[in-house]
Amino acid sequence: MKRFWLLPGSLFLGVALYAGCSSNAGGFSSSFDAGEAGPIDTSDAGPGLFDDASATASVNVTLTGVVYAPNGTLPLAGTLVYVTDAQPDPIPQQTYCDKCITIPAGTFVVSKADGTFSLPVKTTTGKHFLVVQKGQFRRVRPFNVEKEGELRFDKTFTSLPGKRDATLGDDVPKMVVLKGPSKFDKIEESLNKLGITDIEVQNSRDLVKNAAELQKYHVVFIPCDDRDNPQSATAETRQNLQAFVKSGGKLYVTDWSYEWVRQPFGGFLGFDGDQSFGQTTVSEYDGAGTVVDPGLKDWLTAVGETSFTLQGSYTRINYANTLPGLDPDGKDTLITPKVWMNVDYNGKPYASTVSFEQQCGRVLFSTYHTEGGFGGSGQFLAQEKALLYILLEVTACAGEIGGPK
């Protein structure tokens, strides 16, 4: 089963796909002319999805390319690529429930482990839109189809955006990093390396006190800081974070900030030393990383990361529990945390990166610093690459859908 996410209004999903593309300009390497990759203009976009296109010639085209991270160098797996005659609806600029929907076979393609994609379609000549999307990371670009052939897009069309620019057709999730006084895990530096620059950084965690302000974001990062996190245990904080996640928000927590998971979402994960508040008993350790998730393993292999050490862990997950909860439709279900990676500690594997769903949203916890140790290194670590993959996965739609098997 695969998860894909399109907002209401992307109506091509229920019908045959009228699509295509072309050229040797504006990002193509064929004989077709797609025009420049500039601001989106729909004034001459041609027949709409349900318009009568009988007077327009039908052609067979194959769309090919490589999907890249916002930095333009790291290929991405599992990214949705499709073509439509109508621009997708705007992505809501606040927390919302992004439910998965069924996409008929033959109307889309998903990039492989090495980022490549190939989508054969029968379409009409004229103007269309190429959409490359993973969660709220979305790039939309117009292009023209003039004749049959292979249409090869370059990275200006197929890289996910690192910042929002609605004029160009670029969307990213609204993300905020809430720093504590010690600022141990510099997660924003890792995001910058990945080309993601549209990040708000706040030097306090007071945002969690304001439910309305919290709901203005898609992703909230609470990176490692002092073990003493009394604010995480207040009834107000617990209630606000629970509401944020249940309504579709994504909460990403690392290392000594584990109380920000244990307090509002207690019982899913057990931590070494959690018998007392904020009293983890683990000293810093590095350990060999083992990838548990098959998709992440295939992708890391494709980008050259077959053996690596997870650096800068300061906590240890002792167990993960299946607990009753609600699915995206508010129905009773059982929620089992998903283990993405393990880390070796004294010869025994322990879960190091774990996520679980809460109605429409997700919680993600990592025992290690995203950028390793205390940060600041220019080295591009395997765990930073894994951050991007897992971040994109947890920002995808809520629930499982029926799609091509």
Keyword list:
405 residues; alpha+beta; Immunoglobulin-like; Rossmann fold; five-stranded antiparallel sheet; 29% strand; disordered N terminus; disordered C terminus
Entry summary:
13% of the residues lie in helices and 29% in strands. The protein has helices spanning 155-158, 187-193, 211-214, 235-246, 259-262, 294-302, 382-394; strands at 58-66, 80-84, 109-110, 116-124, 126-134, 137-145, 149-152, 170-171, 175-178, 199-202, 219-222, 250-254, 269-271, 285-291, 309-313, 317-320, 323-326, 332-335, 338-345, 348-358, 361-366.
Q: What topology emerges from the helices and strands here?
A:
Elements: E1 58-66, E2 80-84, E3 109-110, E4 116-124, E5 126-134, E6 137-145, E7 149-152, H1 155-158, E8 170-171, E9 175-178, H2 187-193, E10 199-202, H3 211-214, E11 219-222, H4 235-246, E12 250-254, H5 259-262, E13 269-271, E14 285-291, H6 294-302, E15 309-313, E16 317-320, E17 323-326, E18 332-335, E19 338-345, E20 348-358, E21 361-366, H7 382-394
Parallel strand pairs: 1-7, 9-10, 9-11, 11-12, 12-21
Antiparallel strand pairs: 1-4, 2-3, 2-5, 5-6, 6-8, 13-16, 14-15, 14-19, 17-18, 19-20, 20-21
